[in-house]
């Protein structure tokens, strides 16, 4: 896929196999964007809030998009989403839930908490590839991102 908007994608995924599947799908899609991977909800918030190992914003810039799994150890993806979408400076970052959960309650809470899109992980690589291709086509080519908050402009 050519014509992608440059930008950083934060992939929040605790399963190494699913993370590698996503990264392989991005490569197959010829995604030019940088993808950073964190494995827990706590690590995602540390990254997004610039805490601990992620305090250096030059080395760890805010992402332009977040792909968020729900079933994370410790702090769940829904808890991360709820905090993210109520925190000035990061609440406008588009969040796409990418999960195996087809639970109606997870979907409802995701949208209640402000998710921008909810995608269910396909079981096959080719199904996953199709989801990633469509995701890239929409979010990285067609979508007009929200404006950067004044405090974040630099």
Automatic annotation (TrEMBL):
Keywords: Phosphoprotein. The modification 4-aspartylphosphate is found at residue 69. SUPFAM superfamilies: CheY-like (SSF52172). The keyword Phosphoprotein applies. Pfam families: Response_reg. Residues 8-136 form the Response regulatory domain. Gene3D superfamilies: 3.40.50.2300. The lineage of its organism: Bacteria, Pseudomonadati, Thermodesulfobacteriota, Syntrophobacteria, Syntrophobacterales. This is Response regulator receiver domain-containing protein. One of its GO terms (biological process) is phosphorelay signal transduction system. The keyword Phosphoprotein applies.
């Amino acid at each position: 896929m050519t014509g992608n908007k440059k930008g950083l994608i934060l992939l929040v995924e605790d399963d190494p196999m699913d993370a590698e599947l996503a990264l392989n799908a991005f490569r197959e899609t010829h995604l030019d964007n940088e993808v950073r991977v964190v494995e827990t909800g706590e690590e995602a918030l540390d990254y997004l809030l610039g805490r601990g190992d992620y305090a250096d914003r030059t080395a760890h810039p805010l992402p332009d998009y977040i792909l968020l799994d729900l079933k994370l150890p410790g702090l769940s993806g829904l808890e991360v989403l709820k905090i993210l979408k109520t925190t000035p400076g990061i609440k406008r970052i588009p969040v796409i839930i990418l999960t195996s959960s087809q639970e109606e309650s997870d979907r409802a809470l995701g949208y209640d908490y402000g998710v921008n899109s909810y995608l269910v992980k396909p079981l096959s690589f080719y199904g996953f590839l199709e989801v990633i291709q469509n995701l890239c086509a929409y979010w990285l080519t067609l979508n007009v991102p929200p404006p950067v908050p004044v405090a974040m402009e630099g």
